[in-house]
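@here heads up, posting the sequence + SMILES for the TZP run so it's all in one place. Ping me if the SMILES looks off, I pulled it from an old spreadsheet.
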Amino acid sequence: MASATFLSTLSLANKNYLLLTPTHAYAKGYTNNFRVSNLPSIVVRKEGSVRSQGFVAMQEKGGSTLSDDSRTKTPHVLTVAGSDSGAGAGIQADLKACAARRVYCSTVITALTAQNTVGVQGVSNVPEDFVAQQLKSVLSDMQVDVVKTGMLPSVGIVKTLCKTLREFPVHALVVDPVMVSTSGDVLAGPSILSTFLEELLPMADIITPNLKEASALLNGMQLETVDDMRSAARLLHNMGPKNVLVKGGDLPDSSDAVDILYNGHNFYELRSPRIRTRNSHGTGCSLASSIAAEVAKGYPMLSAVKVAKRFVETALDYSKEIDIGNGPQGPFDHLLRLKSHSQACHRQQPFDPSDLFLYAVTDSRMNKRWGRSIIDAVKAAIDGGATIIQLREKDAETKDFMESAKACLRICHLHGVPLLINDRVDVAIACDADGVHVGQSDMPARVARTLLGPEKIIGVSCKTPEQAEQAWVDGADYIGCGGVYPTNTKENNITVGLNGLKTVCMASKLPVVAIGGIGVSNARAVMEICASNLKGVAVVSALFDRECVQTETRKLHEVLLGSNIGST
Ligand SMILES: Cc1ncc(COP(=O)(O)OP(=O)(O)O)c(N)n1
Ligand SMILES: Cc1ncsc1CCOP(=O)(O)O
Ligand SMILES: [Mg+2]
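bot reply: prediction finished. Complex structure tokens:
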């Protein structure tokens, strides 16, 4: 029996309501079982407008007592694609990606390909009416959230799909415009292009072309730079899809993999270190189905793309040694190295760098000295305006640490504040914390990323540009840079000063939080080094080695708001 995970209940006019976020409502399938009430949305705005959160109130259909029994809906992706006998791409990749992302995946097969790591040896299209029959079988019976398309090998199949989707609308359509396989074999000829452009693209919530596909959709336009990718994204957006992700994996002369996401208003440049591996067959299919999976869970598109991209990168990185087939392009493994991850099906808030604004780091000795529990310390820091918490409990017994971490997590999540664990990746996994902070002599961030999976937050302590570059390559989310000023909290810790902090910020592609000897008297000076990626300060003693944690946190919060930096 599923336990209730909603934030709170509300009783009004003898009726009970669930209070929960709209995406949570969708992800949990509550919209199927509850009427969305006509109560106005309730908006909780945390101090300093660091994060605002909308909530909706939902009333149970036909009943008055709320319980969560068996109301959890399984997120469901339907993939409409070709089969790859080598199982690196196509339907097989989609199934594995969705399984790895913990989303149910049904399949409509459009073509059979005889394929291996050398290339495509044969293609046999499935007759249109049988594609139609498969679509109807799935969509008339199952509650599909997102349809993801891959190889659509004939005009008739594209038309059949569009017609069926008009008959059975779904929450979102993800179109991977597969035209050429990674081996260079043509999977959908130019005759299909016009139907694609006229019928399918306008229905799409996102299309995910690589450079070759974007060029083919744009009449052979040359795409050689990131600026070209932006132009292509804008032109493709004009054709009707709500979002366009142009994938720059093939961009020459780039040490990073750069993708451009455009939603008609903003461009997002999504960069990640390029992973050099032979085992990349199926990357495009897997990315598109991972995006579909995250959208099916209720993520907004930008978050879905970020998590999906990180997932594929992690899988690629950890599939480097796989040795399958003799051809130039091997498959990667979605599950092999990742299967020990405790990736819960429920969605969690994606990392928001502005959460680093006021980073409260606990200290077991200080709490003991002032006679307070970790839980009381965390509560007080949140009440004072802390935007992220780290449990840095160097002396705690593992069992005690886990128990207090679980209690702190409940409090943090009620307030929308992420909770990270210092050093102890095992504790973070065991209590499903939001992430970890590791230093240069702790578990390497790359290993922590593999253990924690793509969504968890990982912070790394860095004193130098080289360490900052490594943190980025390792898949960290932020850098903790310090000690900025001398501190008694950490022994033998070299002080980097404001200059050292600035040097690291300038070199870092990641957001940075400053740490070490920071408090009310000098926080402003720290923030005024004016580095756009310096997002806040992390503080131990100035909050926790004080009589009233809440008052000290509030004072620091005010100073930071006054500095007017990093809060956006
Ligand atoms: C936000 C943040 N930045 C830096 C540190 C220091 O981590 P580390 O270097 O591993 O030292 P310890 O905290 O483990 O003593 C941090 N904890 N948080
Ligand atoms: C953990 C850590 N890492 C670098 S300095 C430091 C200690 C920060 O503590 P305080 O805020 O009390 O100076
Ligand atoms: Mg450490």
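MO: The chain has a mean pLDDT of 85.
MO: One more: Residues 301-317 form the longest helix (17 residues).
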